[in-house]
Specification:
heterotrimer, A mainly alpha, B alpha/beta, C alpha/beta, A: mainly alpha, 2 domains, two-stranded antiparallel ribbon, 26 helices, 72% helix, B: alpha/beta, Rossmann fold, six-stranded mixed beta sheet, 39% helix, binds adenosine-5'-triphosphate, binds magnesium ion
């Protein structure tokens, strides 16, 4: 390849990188101001482009349409802050972050419902005649994008370092209590950050759309790219988002050129992980001093129980047995739902250990589910192993992988686990799609037999249902037992002060890696059970949507509650059924939109219900107490 | 060639310790040693490098140069979890109790380094886990009683008044069955009566467990009353070392630290 | 003199635990008032409640003739109540300069942050801060961090300054200086409320003092009278 085409490639990469950087800048802005990771940033970007296109199509001139669209994005983001985040501010960062996933789903739902999911075009700002520099050609629109990005980065720096509001925002993220002592109202100022992030997203989207198209589906992907760029660049630095975005896009372009594009994601995220391992603080980030705890944590005086009583175990056992007995009498739909809910609950229980107790938002449990799924599929179908042996083998494989990964990942702090686990998910997804010889590719491995144990085949739905419930009960017991041991105590301790925990002899990396391995084993178990139930192993049920469902179930059920994991899982499975039942069951495109709309709204609403002080009277009706109440009626105290 | 008459080797030896933060030499060319069961004070102006020395010994922030040896074993740069296992535990200048745990559980966490039982043992509740837990609880209860925290054992640690939180931290450090405890300003925020009580408690600790104490404290009467030997730091270096009475009338020390 | 701060039958606590059982307090403009009490008596809680940081507190707090009921902490701070808070509450990842600049947020919430020159008077009082001005607050030594908390409170020139253990972590020489600073501050017209374990020094500076025990005021009077009170001598002044 000649130099010119290489330069051309780099330049095109740069333009893409500029978009990623725009989104990364939005992530950075919100994170530095409030500590939240705003996963709706990609969708706001999509919305900016789409609204511009819609407005132009409606007859507005371009110069008016773009500002209006950008302003609308700012409004959406601001309204979301004001009516969702702000009332729930006292919740943990992870819960607020999940709320932004809710917004992301909500935006997508609204867009599909109102405008459908067809791509829409927008005219370029200043013609389409390419400019030439030597033999490298560039679109004027690309220059617009790069120019706007540079202005935005410089503006963000000025904002955070040269204005009192910017300083005050950083202060409120660092220490909200201290902020109040200096007359800052963090709750009020957060609005500024969200509006700015909305504007930034809208602007990026509006400038980018003429190069590509505006389409509803790109939002999620863009968001993940932007998040990746922000993390690898260093989310709390000025130039980090820019460096991260450009690095990501260049790597993407090079990988696409030199390696087969179908492996692109795997190699890309592999490189990302490498960057993270080599520079845990991000490309441009600074290492923080080891002695200081990261942030001033707000001290809550809530005691967590860390001992396990017979009553807890008894309640769990009774609930499991009762549910298994009930399963025989239930209708088909309910049985199917219970199976799916049980499988989800197993994953969520593992997630609870890592995210709830360990305080690290893991976004890649799907990867371990796939390990279990393909181990079961391959070993039983191709090698003729008994399912139980394959299942155990998968769990061990998943646990070992997680342990090895964990040893590297947990040297990193903050959002790196989210990023790294997401990367692992992407890699495993790609491998599952491309390594046809073993995985069967997108078609999947077919003909997986039902699960069997010691001669008994769990062929019917009813038997599978009982099996899954028993497995979920057992998983619940194991997690409860772990959480209520010196192990769980150590995890809680690390959350309040890593330095003190280490001084007490806790090897933090090892501890978290073990927790991660346990969660991976459970995810693998769930994956195996799932493929034995449906008879086919393919990548689609384990992707990013599944991750969102898992994380949502965890959040809705409460972060540290075994009973909550069950309740949340049932809610997540039951919700689409309810929606389709209410809306007359036609599975159409607008149904998908509607479902997203309701789902996103409910997700936000449920978290609000659990956390917002204003809604306290309503809280009696939220899921968690309901789950508790139902079980308290029969069996005394329900394990928490 | 062990010579029975040779003095016992000191418990902790620090040689040419240096910690740099960029251009700033927070600790430089620091030498001292501590004998078994000895009570040593470490004082100096604000920013002299006392906490940094603690961080270097306990592994929280490894030194840029120099050696730390415990009972003749080189522990320089070991991570904190291994230092605590080797027998050095500490308290923190800004109290760092675990917010979601009770006083008893906090102190039990102190014994974490003495337990050896992994995830599977804990998950399946095998005997080893139960034994480890019981031992941790026994040690924790012993120190809680000894330090007079009995009535607070079941309370969340952060709801204790500050003074008692500091005592709880001392208990947590002792639960690790250390041979040396590093105390970073244990008496800050205590009133005169409480300081006297703490002094008594620390004496009891040394008598009970035979472990040595290295004590950083700005309250001079307390240090003078408690320590057998005092080391004074200034600008990361050792300025003086001697018995409390020697230190109290050392002109350098008076000039930079005590004031007239 | 008019009362600047009045507190009437203040009850406050954490969750179900009530810590303050009906506290009354009067501070006149320009006065220096000390609050004494053992560990856990509720001094910090009282200061926090005055600033509106105790949810569920009941009773009346008024400042400069204005009832503060329903005002959140930032609003109260903006009325001119400054604080050296318990636990310092600095902004760890930000530099010393930025922390100090935020001390001025009550005076200028918009526009660029003040330059280092505008903080000269603070650096004069606390020269160590000038040496450390580009270091992050999290990397300061304990005493330096305390100085920063003091500096951040002073820079806004509040009308009323609530000091919660300002001498915590300071070396003996610095403690003496800090008390001198508070004294000078009072002379320049700032009203000071001081809760410190260093009861002797506090009583030496104060005009009046209150003594708290388990959430109640058990004694009040001029500093001189309290310093001579035999019961107090025994429990707080060390004989
Ligand atoms: N991570 C860091 N980066 C830069 N400087 C640091 C860092 N940590 C500490 N320092 C500096 O090193 C010096 C020594 O700090 P240290 O905490 O050891 O003091 P100290 O003797 O404990 O003082 P104090 O009595 O005030 O607690 C201080 O001036 C501090 O500002
Ligand atoms: N977060 C909390 N949750 C529950 N109780 C608390 C909390 N913080 C303090 N307390 C309790 O409130 C009481 C008063 O505490 P406060 O901090 O006001 O005392 P203080 O007089 O300032 O003591 P100190 O000298 O230790 O600073 C104490 O008994 C303490 O145990
Ligand atoms: Mg120190
Ligand atoms: Mg206090």
């Amino acid at each position: 390849m000649g130099f010119e085409s290489f330069a051309q490639l780099c330049f095109s990469g740069l333009a893409n990188g500029a978009l990623y950087a725009f989104i990364a800048l939005g992530f950075s802005l919100v994170n530095r101001s409030t500590g939240i990771i705003n996963f709706a940033q990609g969708d706001l970007t999509m919305l900016g482009g789409l609204l511009s296109a819609v407005l132009v199509a409606a007859g507005l001139p371009l110069w008016a349409a773009v500002p209006v669209a950008v302003a609308l994005c700012g409004c959406v983001s601001g309204l979301f802050y004001q009516f969702a985040i702000r009332p729930a501010r006292r919740a943990g960062m992870s819960q607020l972050t999940i709320m932004t996933i809710g917004l992301s789903i909500l935006i997508r739902g609204a867009v599909v419902t109102i405008w459908g999911s067809d791509p829409r075009a927008l005219p370029s700002f200043s013609g389409d005649a390419p400019l030439r520099l030597g033999r490298v050609s560039m679109l004027p629109q690309e220059l617009w994008l790069i120019g706007a990005l540079l202005v935005a980065v410089a503006g963000t720096w000025l904002f955070f370092h040269r204005t009192m509001i910017g300083l005050a925002l950083r202060a409120s993220a660092a220490n909200p209590l201290g902020a109040a002592y200096t007359g800052i109202d963090p709750a009020r100022l957060g609005l500024v950050a969200f509006v700015l992030a909305g504007l930034l997203g809208g602007l990026g989207g509006a400038i980018w759309t003429p190069i590509y198209f505006a389409q509803v589906d790109v939002g999620l992907g863009l968001g993940l790219k932007g998040f990746t760029a922000a993390v690898i660049g260093g989310i709390a630095t000025t130039w980090g988002p820019l460096a991260g975005g450009v690095a990501l896009a260049l790597m993407e372009a090079l990988v696409a050129l030199y390696v087969s594009p179908s492996w692109q994601d795997a190699i890309l995220y592999g490189l990302m992980l490498l960057v993270l391992f080599l520079r845990p603080q991000g490309l441009l980030g600074k290492r923080t001093s080891a002695g200081a705890d990261q942030k001033a944590v707000s001290v809550s005086a809530t005691l967590r129980r860390t001992t396990l009583g017979w009553r807890d175990v008894g309640a769990l056992l009774l609930a499991t047995v009762a549910l298994m007995l009930a399963a025989t009498r239930l209708g088909d739909t309910v049985q199917t739902s219970l199976i799916l809910a049980g499988i989800l609950a197993i994953v969520v229980l593992g997630l609870m250990l890592v995210t709830g107790y360990g305080g690290q938002l893991a976004l890649g449990q799907g990867a371990f589910m796939m390990i279990g799924a393909y181990a079961s599929g391959y070993l039983t179908v191709r090698l003729g192993w008994p399912p139980a042996a394959a299942l155990v083998c998968g769990m061990m494989l998943a646990a070992t992988t997680a342990l090895a990964l964990g040893r590297m990942i947990f040297r990193l702090q903050g959002y790196y686990l989210s990023m790294a686990s997401l990367g692992v998910l992407m890699i495993v997804l790609t491998v599952a799609r491309q390594w046809t010889a073993v995985t069967g590719g997108a078609n999947g491995l077919i003909g997986i037999p039902p699960f069997s144990l010691g001669g008994f085949v769990f062929a019917s739905d009813r038997a599978t249902c009982e099996l899954v419930i028993a497995a979920a009960g057992l998983a619940g017991f194991l997690m409860l037992s772990l959480a209520r041991s010196r192990f769980g105590r150590a995890l809680l301790a690390v959350r309040s002060s890593e330095a003190a925990a280490r001084a007490c002899g806790v090897d933090v990396v090892w501890l978290k890696a073990q927790a991660f391995a346990a969660s991976a084993a459970l995810a693998s178990l769930a994956g195996s059970l799932y493929v034995h139930y449906v008879g086919i192993a393919n990548p689609s049920p384990f992707g990013i949507e599944a991750t969102i469902a898992q994380v949502t179930a965890l959040t809705v059920g409460g972060y540290l509650l075994v009973s909550g994991a069950y309740a949340g899982s049932i809610a997540i499975i039951a919700l689409p059924l309810l929606i389709s039942w209410i809306s007359g069951s036609a599975v159409t495109q607008s149904f998908a939109g509607l479902q997203n709309l309701v789902f996103g709204g409910l997700l936000i609403g449920l978290i609000l219900l659990q956390t917002a002080g204003e809604l306290r009277p309503l809280r009696a009706w939220s899921l968690r107490p309901m789950a508790r109440l139902g079980l308290r009626l029969g069996w005394g105290r329900w394990p928490t | 060639m062990a010579d029975i008459n040779a003095p016992a080797p000191p418990l902790l030896v620090i040689e040419a310790l240096q910690v740099r933060f960029g251009g700033l030499q927070a600790v430089q060319a620091l030498d001292f040693s501590i004998g078994a069961g000895e009570l040593v004070g470490l004082v100096g102006p604000n920013g002299a490098g006392k906490t940094t020395t603690f961080n270097a010994i306990s592994g929280l922030h490894p030194p840029t140069a120099g050696w730390v040896a415990l009972r003749g074993r080189d522990i320089t740069g070991l991570p904190p979890e291994q230092v605590s296992r080797a027998g050095v535990t500490r308290t923190f200048q800004n109290v760092r109790l675990f917010a979601e745990l009770s006083v008893l559980e906090n102190v039990m966490m102190g014994a974490f380094c003495r337990g050896r039982c992994g995830l599977l043992a804990a998950m399946l509740r095998v005997g080893r886990h139960r034994r480890t837990e019981r031992r941790a609880r026994d040690v924790a209860l012993h120190w809680i009683e000894r330090l007079g925290l009995g009535q607070y054992a079941a309370q969340p640690a952060v709801t204790l008044p500050l003074g008692l939180q500091r005592v709880a931290e001392v208990a947590r450090a002792l639960a690790g069955e250390p041979c040396l405890v590093l105390l970073d300003e244990p008496a800050a925020g205590l009133n005169t009566g409480e300081k006297a009580r703490l002094t008594e408690l620390l004496r009891v600790v040394v008598a009970d467990s035979g472990c040595a104490l290295l004590l950083v404290e700005h309250d001079m009467p307390l240090v003078m009353g408690l320590a057998e030997r005092v080391i004074v730091m200034d600008f990361g270096r050792k300025l003086a070392e001697g018995t409390p009475s020697e230190i109290a009338c050392n002109p350098d020390v008076i000039r930079v630290y005590l004031g007239a | 003199m008019t009362p600047l701060l009045t507190v009437r039958t203040l009850h406050a606590g954490y969750g179900k635990i009530t810590v303050l059982h009906g506290v009354d307090l009067d501070v006149k403009a320009g006065e220096f008032v000390a609050i004494l009490g053992a560990n856990g008596a509720g001094k910090s809680t009282l200061l926090k409640a005055i600033l509106g940081m105790m949810p569920g507190a009941s009773g009346q707090v008024s400042f400069a003739g204005r009832d503060l009921a329903g005002l959140a902490t930032p609003r109260r701070v903006r009325l001119g109540i400054g604080a050296i808070p318990e636990g310092r509450q600095l902004f760890g990842e930000m530099t010393v300069l930025e922390n100090l600049a935020l001390g001025l947020y009550v005076r200028r919430s918009f526009g660029p942050p003040p330059r280092a020159g505008a903080m000269a008077h603070v650096f004069e009082l606390l020269p160590r801060l000038a040496e450390r001005k580009h270091q992050t607050a999290a990397s300061l030594s304990g005493g330096e961090a305390q100085m920063l908390a003091i500096g951040r409170a002073l820079i806004a020139r509040p009308r009323l300054l609530l000091c919660d253990e300002p001498s915590l972590g300071l070396a003996p020489l610095r403690v003496a200086e800090m008390f001198q600073t508070l004294d000078r501050l009072r002379r320049s017209g700032v009203t000071v409320v001081l809760a410190d374990q260093n009861a002797k020094a506090a009583l030496r500076l104060a005009d009046r003092a209150y003594v708290m025990e388990t959430g109640r005021i058990v004694a009040a009077g001029t500093a001189g009278a309290l310093a001579d009170d035999p019961r107090l001598r025994e429990s707080y002044l060390g004989g």
